Amino acid sequence: MEQLERLNYLITYLAEEYEDFKLPKEYDEKRYVLRGFMNVREPKEIDKTWLKIQDAFLQEELNAKGIINVDLLEPIPSDPNIILWQGDITRLKVDAIVNAANSKMLGCFISNHRCIDNAIHSAAGFQLRLACKEIMQKQSHDEKTGTAKITEGFNLPSKYVIHTVGPIVDGQLTELHKEQLKSCYLSCLKLAQENDCKSIAFCCISTGEFMFPQEDAAKIAIDVVKEYLKSSKIKVVFNVFKDSDYDIYKNLLEQ
Fold it and tell me: Which of 231, 187, 195, 222 lies closest to 99, judged by CA?
């Protein structure tokens, strides 16, 4: 089955849950619709054949984008266990990537939203939402800020996804916000090592939709990681997407 055939199948199946849906003609429009459908769909049972075709579709997309192996990335001059890399975190072949989740821990339900939570769930496939649902059902309450949970990576090149809930800064930055963000990084590092991870890639937790000031967040991330590496051995990637974040991390790591 070619990619276009897979795409048409995946959309057509999900479109049955809607009325009066018309399949777009252009490939890019179809791809946009598929992501949107997957983003808003509740974590409920789905046909195994659909999942199999979804997996083949996402794997071919990943191969087209290109996988980035953490072992081939250059560390910073001052520490062989710290890497600064700018790019798409869903391409990174590391033991674990960190997802900046919300307290419901089920992914972003806004169609085609540009947050990291949406990007990771969209690339991993619908199984990730189902795995998160299973965790949250057993837990029976929202995830607390500063804590983390781990799932498989499914269609991602990373073995695991570690989901952490960062603080929301709605107004002035407080000491509580800072402590909560420290806890996010420390929780992720500990959870990674408990699961025998030799490498972990952090996104810029809380700096997007959760409005944590970028430079303050970067300082906390670097301080926590450097302190942790004094007694534990794990390769850490600071993954940034924006140019502004890259410049902030680069300057701080050179100090």
Answer: 187
Q: Is 18 helix (H, G, I), strand (E, B) or coil?
A: coil
Domains belonging to the chain, first-starting first, are 3-63 (no CATH), 67-254 (3.40.220.10)
Could you please report the per-residue DSSP string of 119-176?
A: HHHHHH-HHHHHHHHHHHHHH-SPPPTT-EEEEE-TTSSSSEEEEEEPPP--SS--HH
pLDDT in tens, 85-122: 999 999 999 999 999 999 999 999 999 999 999 999 99
Whole-angstrom CA distances from 27 to 50, 93, 215 are: 19, 28, 39
Measured CA to CA, the distance from residue 190 to residue 214 in angstroms comes to 24
pTM for the predicted model, two decimal places: 0.96
User: Residues of 127-153 as b/e, b for ≥16 C-beta within 10 angstroms?
Assistant: bbbbbbbeebeeeeeebebbbbbbbeb
Bridge partner residues of 76 (DSSP): 79
Tokens of 230: 């004094």
Q: Residue type for 115, please?
A: C
